[in-house]
Amino acid sequence: MILMLKMRCVCSFTTLTWFWFAWTHVADFLCRVSSYFDSRGWMRIYSEHREDFKLKWCVTKSPAKYRSFREGRHLMYQIPNNMVLTTKIGLLRSLREFEQVGRKVQHGHRWLKMEEFIPSTYRMDMKKERELFFSHFTQQEAVESCMWICKPTNGSQGRGIFLLKNTQDPLLLKFAFSHSLAFSPPQASFPNIRYIQKPLLLDGRKFDVRSYLLIACTAPYMVFFRHGYVRLTCDVYDPMSNNLSTHLTNQYVQKKHPHYSELKEDTVWSMESFNTYVNLRFQVAKGLPRDWVLGAFARRMQQIMTQCFFAVKDKLDCRPGFFDLIGCDFLVDESFKVWLLEMTCNPALNADCEVLKEVIPRTVSETLDLTLELFSKCRLRKKILPLASQKDFVMLYSGASDHACSKTSNGIKLDKKKIKRNHTTQPKRESKVEGKKGADNPLPKVTSSL
């Protein structure tokens, strides 16, 4: 499915502006985006080979899709090398490198240790870590029973995920690796992640929280957080169940449940409903502050997301015109510790239940409002802050100074060395860690009371 639109007079673009859109699923989201642009005078165009577009929304990334991009003139959804943040191994590598550098360079902040928000993880595509995992598992099993979850680094919708639940499973996996069974290099690119066996439950069911990280502008960086929604399983939680739908909360997996159509509305909660539930069930019993969900929990998510952004800030392709909306999934365990499960590019934006019909359209509209406002202000050399379109999104980081963006006659003035360094769509080699350059405005300190 491809969509392109043309605009008559929006913000300060040229008289005719075109919008190109490619989406592989959900017609309702296609209609929602079309409605957004229709109401603002944009017109759709249908050829992906045209180069006179102003905004291109792509789901899948390929060199061909970025070939026609012109920095400072075009807007394009998805930063080309966002895999340093949105793949499981990419994020793991970025955080490890950042933690190593962070011990020496604090930038005035107290960064979290990875073990405070990332479950123990081993890369199975690296021999040393693979052997360390098998050794660790054997020792750990002698002390306590533990489970591990294996996720393909580029996977989505629950595809390719499996659990290691007993002492025999890792032995079988080790045998498969040692005999090269079913694991060619691409298949071996998955991390083994320690499974949180005692998650907090809502009415006996496992859940996680989908929040959003918006990089609305890359030159200068403008980064935002937004609340999303709670995703629950259909079935009551049983850690020893062989049914993946008991362990995975995403809607693609839950839709396979035989009673999903009847339970659908109860598999997605609003953050307000989650907050009310925690106030009623856990505030007194666990000694939590009132509105823990909307207060301490929200701040913790923001703190983690900010650290993840800083881990990739000097790696991302920051040519002006790129923007990205990233889905961030968090789990809360029974002791109310917050864990980051993963960050995903191109998060699902379909709205097939009442909560999503409220959350998704507002998220999409404000994402585009902020992106267009920032792009327009930079082109016109206007002061960036305050942002008239900012409503539900919370600013995590601003690289904008108080004065207007420095521009050339044809758009944003660029640091050519930085562009050359960042334009590649491939992540850096593991052994190389780039230091930070320049003096950005300091990040507002984020504190958390958990």
TrEMBL record:
Please list every transmembrane segment annotated in the UniProt record, as residue ranges: none
Q: What is this protein called?
A: Tubulin tyrosine ligase like 10
Bias (Basic and acidic residues) ranges: 427-439
Q: Which SUPFAM superfamilies match?
A: Glutathione synthetase ATP-binding domain-like
Q: Which domain of life is it from?
A: Eukaryota
Q: Where is this region: Disordered?
A: 414-450
Q: Which GO terms describe its molecular function?
A: ATP binding; protein-glycine ligase activity, elongating
Residues of the signal peptide: none
List the lineage, top down.
Eukaryota, Metazoa, Chordata, Craniata, Vertebrata
